[in-house]
Every structure is written in C-alpha cells, then in structure tokens.
C-alpha cells in the first residue's frame, strides 16, 4: 500500500521526467526558428561552414573543430567518471544512506529506494556518455567533410556549396547531441535533490527547468545570437 512519502516520491519522479520532456519538446519546437539559443547557434554553425568554403587557408576552422572535439571528449570522460561514482555509491550504500537519512526532512526512505535512486543517477550519466560519445564521432566526421570541401576558388560552384552544407549538417548534429549530454548533466544536478526527499526533487527540478529556459530564451547570450539570426525577440 502506498504511503504519503511514496506518493510524494512518485509525484516527484513524474515531475522530473515531465520537466525534462517538456524542456526537450520546447527546444525541439524552436529547433529551426532561430528563436532560441540552440537554434540560433545552429544558424551560426551553418554560416561558419559557408564562410569556411570561401577561405583559402582553413587552419582556423580545423583549430575550432579540434577545440570542439576536445571539449566533447572531456565531457565524455567526465561521464565515465560519474558512472563509476554511481557504482561506488551503490557499493557504499550503508555509509551514504546513513548520512542522507540524517539529512532527510521526513521519515527515512527504505534502503531499496536509495539504491533505486543511485541506479537512476548512474543511468542519467550513462545516457550523457552516449550523447557525448556520438557527438565526438560526428565532430570527427565533420572534420573530414571540412577537408573534403573544394578550395575557395570553387566557392561559388554548386559542388562547393553542397559540401559546405554537408559539413554544416554534421556540425549542427554534433552540437545538438552535445547539448543533449549537457542537458542530462544539468538535470542530474536537480536529480540529486531526490536523495534528500521528493519535495526537494520537485524544487530542484523546477529550478533547473527555469534556469535552462532563461538561458535559452532570455539570457544576454541568447539575445545576442537570436538577433544575429534575424529575430527581434526570443
């Protein structure tokens, strides 16, 4: 039979999953509009590839691509470390469970529920690793496509334009998967609230959702690139 505490846990988890889905759907809805930070940056990536096609020397472009790859590799490695931390958390259940039970604002949750929470956190970081790993692979492919783009002398030809579009498509896809991985990291921070209790999970998830929406639509960075993409307001 469900207790009041377990009902709160179910409600909190439902809100956590729902908030993640709501945010993802909002970003997807604006993915082609240029009215969010992510979609406006997609526009900039396409502009970058078309500018690249008109450059004789492309060391700048390869340098930028290398930096993007290194950043993605860093987060992929961090995800693996976080996954290891999740398994270490399961291995030290007694010690950690005792500390969190003392911090709990309500009656102590069952030990089994604590282990479910730890497994859930590990799965979130596992999802992040796959997103970062695929993003890294796509950036590798994009680098090859940059190298396959005809020289600046052919920049106005259809073949060169098509090659730049292909490179842009891969760069945009890599950026989106990188964003998916970062999104998992951000929501994982909110998920940590569940280790205290369900009410804290609701609060931390709501805070993460508000912060993410602000950054996508209202932050100074968002306004700058949204205006550059030709939109008057987010």
Brief write-up:
This protein is 80% helix and 0% strand. It contains eight helices and no strands. α2 crosses α8 and α6 (158-191) runs antiparallel to α7 (198-217).
Specify Rg, calculated over alpha carbons.
22 Å
What distance separates the N and C termini?
Answer: 47 Å
**Mean pLDDT level:** 89
Query: Could you tell me the number of beta strands?
Result: 0
| Computed structural class | mainly alpha
Main beta sheet strand tally, sense and closure:
none
SSE order, as H and E? HHHHHHHH
The helicity comes to over 70%
Structure description:
- This protein is mainly α and 234 residues long.
- It has helices spanning 4-29, 37-53, 59-91, 93-103, 111-148, 158-191, 198-217, 220-228.
- The protein is elongated, with a radius of gyration of 22 Å.
- It starts with a helix and ends in a 6-residue tail after the last helix.
Walk me through the topology.
Blueprint: H1 4-29, H2 37-53, H3 59-91, H4 93-103, H5 111-148, H6 158-191, H7 198-217, H8 220-228
Helix pairs in contact: 1-7, 2-6, 2-8, 3-5, 5-6, 6-7
List keywords for this structure.
234 residues, mainly alpha, 8 helices, 80% helix, elongated
């Amino acid at each position: 039979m469900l207790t009041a505490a377990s009902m709160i846990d179910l409600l909190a988890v439902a809100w956590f999953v729902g908030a993640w889905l709501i945010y993802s759907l909002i970003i997807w809805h604006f993915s082609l509009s240029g009215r969010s930070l992510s979609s406006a940056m997609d526009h900039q990536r396409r502009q970058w590839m078309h500018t690249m096609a008109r450059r004789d020397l492309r060391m700048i472009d390869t340098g930028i691509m290398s930096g993007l790859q290194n950043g993605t590799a860093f987060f992929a490695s961090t995800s693996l470390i976080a996954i290891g931390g999740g398994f270490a958390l399961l291995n030290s259940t007694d010690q950690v469970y005792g500390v969190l039970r003392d911090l709990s604002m309500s009656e102590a949750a069952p030990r089994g529920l604590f282990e479910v929470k730890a497994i859930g956190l590990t799965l979130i970081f596992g999802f992040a690793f796959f997103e970062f790993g695929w993003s890294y692979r796509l950036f590798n492919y994009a680098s090859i496509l940059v190298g396959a783009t005809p020289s600046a002398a052919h920049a106005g030809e259809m073949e060169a334009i098509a090659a730049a579009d292909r490179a842009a498509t891969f760069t945009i896809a890599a950026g989106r998967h990188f964003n998916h991985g970062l999104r998992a990291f951000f929501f994982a921070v909110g998920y940590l609230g569940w280790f205290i209790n369900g009410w804290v999970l609701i609060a931390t998830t709501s805070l993460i959702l508000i912060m993410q929406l602000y950054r996508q639509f209202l932050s100074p960075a968002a306004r700058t690139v949204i205006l550059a993409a030709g939109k008057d307001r987010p």
